[in-house]
Amino acid sequence: MAEQVQDDTISRRRLLGTAGAVGAAGLVMGGGAGAFAADAVRDEPAALSGVGETERMFHGKHQAGIADPAQACGHLLAFDLAPGADRKAAAALLRRWSATAAELMAGEVPRGDDTGIALDAGPSALTVTFGFGRTFFDRTGLAARRPVALQPLPAFTGDALDAKRSDGDLWVQIGADDPLVAFHAVRLLRKQAGDAVRPRWQMTGFNRTPGATARPRTGRNLMGQIDGTNNPKPSDPDFAARVFVPDDSGDWMAGGSYAVVRRIRMLLDSWDHLSLERQEKVIGRRKSDGAPLSGGTETTPVDLDKIREDGSLAIAGDAHIRVAAPESNRGAAMLRRAFSYQDGVLDDGAPDAGLLFVAWQADPRKGFVPVQRKLDRGDGLSRFLRHESSGLFAVPGGCAPGEYVGQRLLEG
């Protein structure tokens, strides 16, 4: 990879140098220089990396987009079933969407697609994930099969929720390492929805692009903080139990998960006015490398009992990592797989930016809810956040070739 990047750097430098020389010579040579520059631009550039070749599998025990690393760009969409659309219409829609998602994730051109939006790109780690909101079951006559875990989330004191950007009958998460590949999937799925659904809301986010750092690193959020150090990892022995509904549940949700989706605006202007020392105290970690203030490196376990020489707690009582820690929440944990967002500025000039928070767990009553209740009561970071939209979705397990997502529910 280092050799490849070096070759590409030389290529771009050569091209830029050639263009600069041509620009200067053009003062004397006139039109001839333009033709020479055009030939230089037409040269095939060296590949930056193999990012476009990365492929995620659509078919399998679990849906993609849950345990996979979060991609560079993401779209979260919610739809409501159109008036008159029933269980049969919903099944037909999920059948179409599943077939198209499988083709797109394999880097293929779906049948009937003439958009050409991502014609030159590989799959670019594309994932497409489908889920059902609470109201979906009422509108399809399936209320008796609605999971008990899909009960409405409780109200939190920090909520300032916009109902128009919350909930929905159907939820789709699309992620890719190339923005055009992600947009192509969004565009195609919306076209294929036809008259079966009505768009409810859409949110677009981003993460650091793969290869942007010298080595793989934990991502940073828009506050500049390393975010996700203590996320459950697929290698953890209890990962599946925390994230996925057990296989032996005997339910159509076996192998599935529950996604809590929150649009969280960060009060960045207020945050930026804090000193570095104060920011680190609010989080409980050093901003430079993510190491806990109790000592060590980023991955050193946090010592919540450590006392400093002056007698104070190394990790403050209201520090975010203390309040959110499983040890502070009877072991409650969830897999956070978020995207940052930037939607311009508000009327007062403040940035409309923050986090598209997506949390995955086997049961939100044992994952998100107890942790958020604790954060709501005593998290020092909450003063710099506004929860502006919310949704909870049942995300069924994956499907085999020839099947579609949700088939066990809709045809069971």
Description:
The protein has 412 residues and is of the alpha+beta class. It has one domain (54-212, 220-410). It contains 11 helices and 9 strands. Strands 1, 2, 3, 4, 5, 6, 7, 8 and 9 form a 9-stranded antiparallel beta sheet that branches. β7 (339-345) and β8 (351-361) form a beta hairpin. α1 (2-29) packs antiparallel against α2 (31-42) and α3 runs antiparallel to α5 (179-193). It is globular. The termini are far apart.
- Could you give the order of the helices and strands? HHEHEHEHEHEHHHEEEHEH
How many domains in all? 1
Number of strands: 9
If you compute it from the alpha carbons, what radius of gyration comes out, rounded to the nearest whole angstrom? 24 Å
Calculate the mean pLDDT score and round it: 90
Main sheet record? 9 strands, antiparallel
